[in-house]
Design a protein that fits this description.
The complex is a heterodimer of chains A (about 120) and B (about 110).
Chain A (H helix, E strand, L loop, with lengths): L3 E4 L2 E4 L5 E7 L4 E9 L6 E7 L5 E2 L8 E7 L2 E6 L8 E9 L6 E2 L3 E5 L1
Parallel strand pairs in A: 2-11
Antiparallel strand pairs in A: 1-3, 3-8, 4-5, 4-9, 5-6, 7-8, 9-10, 9-11
Chain B lengths: L8 E5 L4 E6 L7 E8 L6 E6 L4 E2 L4 E4 L5 E6 L8 E9 L11 E6 L1
Parallel strand pairs in B: 1-9
Antiparallel strand pairs in B: 2-7, 3-4, 3-8, 5-6, 6-7, 8-9
The chains are: A mainly beta (about 120), B mainly beta (about 110).
Chain lengths: ~120, ~110
């Protein structure tokens, strides 16, 4: 149980384009989903927290207009990197937690390369 | 949330028990101890968590000292696939934000 998937697993895009990453909880209802970013040899950094049906809460320093997060259902959240630049190249990981649970379960990650 | 301190790296022989320590001397009464691990180029994997009692599941055991200021994650029979970065995180009950430190890079040697 507690399986979280992400799609795509890796994506290459041109600078200036937008990229959408999907995060799905496959066997539980995720009331809260989280988006993290990880640069090479660094630890995970939380970008934002989203609760189903409400606006995401962004961490300090994360541009909400650049990283659009939608959590429209209890099993799906999307992260859209708008007008991507090479410095946005990173490993993006989502996690999800269910009703009443503190335990977060993580997706496999999406590796984004912006050329 | 309380800060944790872990060794930067550890080595363990395949088949032996891997004991990963974590110090959390400022932990408060309602903070849980969580362990995750991250295998290279994958998302973190939940391992185990506890409040004050020792816990065991199919993956590992968690030993928490009586004063709760430190804990040890035990992988009873380490395999090469257990090579990963292991993160010890303390989290207040009901809170949602996981703060990842640098973790311990565990290498299992054949």
């Amino acid at each position: 149980g507690a399986v979280v998937s992400q799609h795509p697993s890796r994506v290459i895009c041109k600078s200036g384009t937008s990229v959408k990453i999907e995060c799905r909880s496959l066997d539980f209802q995720a009331t809260t989903m989280f988006w993290y970013r990880q640069f090479p040899k660094k630890s995970l950094m939380l970008m934002a927290t989203s609760n189903e049906g409400s606006k995401a809460t962004y961490e300090q320093g994360v541009e909400k207009d650049k990283f659009l997060i939608n959590h429209a259902s209890l099993t799906l959240s999307t992260l859209t990197v708008t007008s991507a630049h090479p410095e946005d190249s990173s490993f993006y990981i989502c996690s999800a937690s269910g009703l009443g649970g503190e335990t977060q379960y993580f997706g496999p990650g999406t590796r984004l390369l912006v050329l | 949330d309380a800060k944790t301190t872990q060794p930067t790296s550890m080595d363990c022989a395949e088949g032996r028990a891997a004991n990963l320590p974590c110090n959390h001397s400022t932990i408060s009464g309602n903070e849980y101890v969580y362990w995750y691990r991250q295998i290279h180029s994958q998302g973190p994997q939940y391992i185990i968590h506890g409040l004050k009692n020792n816990e065991t599941n199919e993956m590992a055991s968690l030993i928490i000292t009586e004063d709760r200021k430190s804990s040890t994650l035990i992988l009873p029979h380490a395999t090469l696939r257990d090579t990963a970065v292991y993160y010890c995180i303390v989290l207040i009950q009901g809170a949602q934000k996981l703060v990842f430190g640098q973790g311990t890079r565990l290498t299992i040697n054949p």
